[in-house]
Amino acid sequence: MEGYNYLLNKSEEIIQEILNEVNQEYIDDVDMKIIPLLLFRKILEKSKAIQILNDNKSGDSTLTLARSILENYWYLMFMLDEDTEFRSFSYCFFTVKEGANKQLSQVKSYIKSYYKYIETHKETISFCQSQIKDINESLTKTKILDKFIKKKSEDIKLTLKKTLEDEIDKLNKEILSNKKRISELNKEKKECDFVLKELNSGNKFIEIREEFTKIKNKVKKPNWYTLKTGIGNIYEVAANLELEDYYIEYALLSQEVHSSNATNQIDIEKGNIILKDFFDRDISEMTQNIAKKCLLDSLKDLLIFYEKENLITKIDNELFYKY
After folding, report:
1. Torsions phi, psi for 267 (to 5 deg)
2. Would you state the pLDDT for residue 163?
3. Helices 62-81 and 281-305 meet at what angle, rounded to 10?
């Protein structure tokens, strides 16, 4: 555990060190230089989460995290393997475009909903106003002679009128609030439109778009790793790197993500259903080993990419004494 803690802390320290250097030296090429670091940070983030969950004896909850670690590990190693600048831009293009399209779709849906709320509120206000008009007319035309009954009737009508007026006031405030939210959402929509315009026609991603055009009819669902390679899925990414050894574990971990392993929580003993403990030591060890291997291997390649090879031997020596 001491070695694992050292690896986690050292990784975090190195990320900050590299980030500081990237900001100073590569500001014009920040996309190419920063994306490998961000992928590594995701591996570190999930590795730290696995440690926390295992310390709190929640081993099964680490399965999803281990799957994410493997994905990011394969992505990072593929990115660093060759043509890193292009693959970094490709990753940026696909992920940002997907995010912008999802956000744009969500924003449009929200705007439509707020306009619907406004129309519904206006209809309700119109109804309330017609009711108030009827009340006002009835107050002027009342023919009740008994003063007590007349007063009682007027009080009831005035109370109802006040309730309707309060409702109108409340709805008008909600309409103003909804209009303000629509205005904010329209700003978000403009930002999404701007991002998508840059991705689809800006000079920065010309090569990415050209490569996408070449491959889009050859691969069913092209991804960032498809361009120039024809690779169509994550298994092929791992196989391309000769890192597919963990793919069997990855497939098993996917059962947790898709909730297709609920029956793994039980044993049958003498005809009775027995619930297993939440903490499974074997699962805990497996996920921590995945995290440790992926974190260490990717850290070494990251250090080579950022020209910090001198740190590799130092880290190996520290881990030798701590494990």
Report:
1. -125, 155
2. 94
3. 20
- Say if residues 137 and 161 touch (Cβ distance below 8 Å): no
Cβ atoms of 107 and 294 within 8 Å: the answer is no
**Residue tagged 């009954």 (tokens):** 149
Distances from the Cα of 94 to the Cα of 38, 89, 125, 298, angstroms: 15, 9, 46, 22
For Cα atoms 234, 240, 246, give the angle at the middle one, nearest 5 degrees.
Answer: 60
Q: Say what the alpha-carbon torsion angle 12, 14, 20, 22 is, to the nearest 10 degrees.
A: -120
Max alpha carbon distance in the chain (Å)?
Answer: 104
Q: Give the pLDDT confidence of 65-96 residue by residue, as tens digits.
A: 999 999 999 999 999 999 999 999 999 999 99
Angle at 94 between CA 93 and CA 95, to 5 degrees: 100
What tokens were used for 20?
A: 């500081």
- Which amino acid appears at position 200 of this protein? N
Residue 8 contacts residue 44 (beta carbons within 8 Å) = yes
Question: What's the length of the chain?
Answer: 323
Q: How far apart are CA 88 and CA 305, in angstroms?
A: 13
Percent of the chain having pLDDT more than 90?
60
Give 141-155 pLDDT, tens digit per residue: 665 555 666 677 778
Amino acid residing at 37: L
Residue among 318, 312, 288 nearest 299 (CA)? 312
- Give pTM, 2 decimals: 0.81
| Cα 147 to Cα 58, 143, 144, 153, distances in angstroms | 75, 11, 8, 10
Beta-carbon contacts of residue 41 (< 8 Å; ≥ 6 apart): 15
